[in-house]
Automatic annotation (TrEMBL):
Ranges annotated as biased composition (Basic and acidic residues): 384-393
Residue ranges of the TM segments: 12-35
Annotated ranges, domain Protein kinase: 86-366
Source species: Macleaya cordata
Region (Disordered): 372-393
Name of this protein: Protein kinase domain
Domain of life: Eukaryota
Annotated keywords: ATP-binding, Kinase, Membrane, Nucleotide-binding, Serine/threonine-protein kinase, Transferase, Transmembrane, Transmembrane helix
InterPro entries, sorted: Kinase-like_dom_sf (IPR011009), Prot_kinase_dom (IPR000719), Protein_kinase_ATP_BS (IPR017441), Ser-Thr/Tyr_kinase_cat_dom (IPR001245), Ser/Thr_kinase_AS (IPR008271)
Pfam families for the chain: PK_Tyr_Ser-Thr
Amino acid sequence: MEEGDERRKEAIVLVVIVVLACLALVSLLVAFSYYCYITNKLSKRLKSSKRSDFGEKGGLSNIQVATEKGIQVFTFKQLHSATGGFGKSYVVGHGGFGSVYRGVLPDGRKIAVKLMDRAGKQGEEEFKMEVELLSRLRSPYLLALLGYCSESDRKLIVYEFMANGGLQEHLYPDRGSNGGASKLDWETRLRIALEAAKGLEYLHEHVSPPVIHRDFKSSNILLDKNFHAKVSDFGLAKLGSDKAGGHVSTRVLGTQGYVAPEYALTGHLTTKSDVYSYGIVLLELLTGRIPVDTQRPSGESVLVSWALPRLTDREKVVEIMDPALEGQYSMKEVVQVAAIAAMCVQMESEYRPLMADVVQSLVPLVKHHRPTSTVGSSFHKSPISHEYDKHTS
């Protein structure tokens, strides 16, 4: 009898030991799972923090940094007052992002206010990217950021005011109504081409990793009261690869007629994608034609396809020139600018020049138009001019 009781006690003790061991094992598994969960969450936060420092999508931490660099945080009420309640008479531009309004601050400063109306994640990312980039980039050839407003779903960006608006409206005044001729003379167009090129050169060559604009076009080149140019609208900008000849893969965005062919086909984005877009703008300055115009005769609707064969023919290049420019330029100047445009819009991206080469090629032409110069002054050949000779000889 006593022996049976002993066996029962031993069995009970054994069960208790097994149960306690199981509970201890379960506790260890729960603790380990919790540890993994916390570690993973912390890791994601750290990665997010690093990425937002100057990353692809950006973050609010960067916007806070921006305020330390002299970027003002405005209230919606302040900007509502400065723009006459965002009245229709204050509108100076439209885009896929929303509208731009002119305004005046209490201290008398003239401003332009972009009111973002693109809802959802895409609009939020464009807002963050533009504020982050412009708070860090410093160039006289980029539109200056003055501040921003982010109150709930209201996203506004405040810039310096550019009295003469976008280049596009001066190249094609009254388009669709009376079709008035552009009043931009040859000298002004050359200077705009150079200053816009310097803006892209800064983004590509003086920032690491380089910044790819991704939506470079004539409407995003703004002109001040003296028709000096600045590159604007960085909502679609991307950080490029820091490897020589490298690319980043991304969703294809941009404006029809300006998008580089290899980017449109593969989604591979490089600084040379911006160079192609710049070449299209240069064609606009030369021809006074928009990139895609379905109202043109057959064979002339796509600007680059129509112009390219003429750009590489010294006898035919004059045929593409904007009639409004008649008598304002020499053939040497036209051939040089045509050579730059031809190289920029090459189908193969590796054949396109760097923006530094474009700047170097344009500088002598713009200096050529100083008051002390004469039509017969010496003409300097650039690296692009030599490449042009190779392709056309």
